[in-house]
Design brief:
21 helices; 0% strand
Length: 525
Amino acid sequence: MAGDQVHVLSALDGAKTQWYHFTAIVVAGMGFFTDAYDLFCISLVTKLIGRVYYTVPGSPHPGSLPPTVAAAVNGVAFVGTLSGQLFFGWLGDKVGRKSVYGMTLLLMIICSVASGLSFSHTPTTVMATLCFFRFWLGFGIGGDYPLSATIMSEYANKRTRGAFIAAVFAMQGFGILAGGAVAIGVTALFKNRSPAPPYAVNPAASTPAQADYVWRIVLMLGALPAALTFYWRMKMPETARYTALIAKNAERAAADMSKVLQVEITKEQAGDLEVAHKSPASPSFGLFSGEFVRRHGLHLVGTASTWLLLDVAYYSQNLFQKDIFSAIGWIPPAASMSALDELYHIARAQTLIALCGTVPGYWFTVAFIHSVGRFKIQAMGFFMMTGFMLGLAVPYDYWTGQGHQAGFVAMYALTFFFANFGPNATTFIVPAEIYPARLRATCHGISAASGKVGAIIGSFGFLYLAQSPDPAKTAHGYLPGIGVRNSLFVLAGCSLMGFMLTFLVPEPKGKSLEEMSRETEPDKC
């Protein structure tokens, strides 16, 4: 009967690409748009928040967040995301993908708005409420990782599955771009209405009262794309693979497939599928079983470790790229700008990097994933990231010299290009393709949570490591570190390790989900 099961499931793999596939990409992708917008826009506004709430009267330097507060604001959403990835991944396998899919989006909408409200006007209270809501925002975002990847992999046909999952993830690029664009637009609007002198000219007037509204508006607008797609997400049916293979309601699965994908499944074929999955030959091992370790143990090590190492390098650069731009002179000294001018310059720099490196990299993956394959793209991406980071680090003094900043930015953008046309996309795609249906969201959640461990290491580690070894040149409140140059060497080492561990990850190109997960192979008892 296992053969009948493969025969029925192949109807999904052989289905023509239809309008519903593109609808699913947009609906699932808007969650990642919101994810990227919310996670990355905080890096744009932290300096503004520092000026508004932590300026010391009479200080020659503008206010900035104390190290512990900066670490909390940047890291708390990651902790929430990690928790959400594990919880909703497990829950999605237990009660169904659709059952919890709307819950994650609703959590994102509520907490995006609440993050901008951040009650009271004292620094301690504002930061405490901001961190509280950003944790739960991250919790909702975390759930979107395993659920969106699993839903898209189970809806897609075999020929275009990788490109469709990559397209969902590629919406992150537009989210990052939107974060910068919204910050530029909102800042420009307030600058025109409330002009302010540079800090060096008039410290008190350099941060107008309206600046407190700017960062709140930027954060709250993250709720908009999620709210626009909530209705369509709630209307999505459960995936046919979950309904048939886990809920074991083959007739309902056939009806859902016929309705949204225009795939005809006869009642006899549906019955064959139901009988097949009740067969003793159907595997039933759990996550902590020896059989899972035998079949997928090394795969899980590979998907989890490569995602961890990628995020150490990726997030450490992305969250703190404004500090790198300042170090090379691409952004003027803070004291020479007003609070809104500083936000404008940081947002413009981040938007340029997203436009030139981040967004194209995602869509190169979409275009080439089936011709090149997941393994080659991931290995190439890690290898090129290693090379470009070394290219930035070895002649670092040259790049930071007068007149060479444009070259530094070009190399930096290429690092992001090959991260996104590389492991940042493939570490998301592959875990949704290689594990059994009843453990697919759970294993994806574990892999993604490992990535967020890397993001926490990267963001917290880089925050301190990138400080100058010279105590006189460190940011206020920080201990001396190893400097940006040596930090880039560390990140190059992480990328090289990711390249080597990629060899533990199998290539799903051209294979069905059941072939990759060995779903129809009997337990080895």
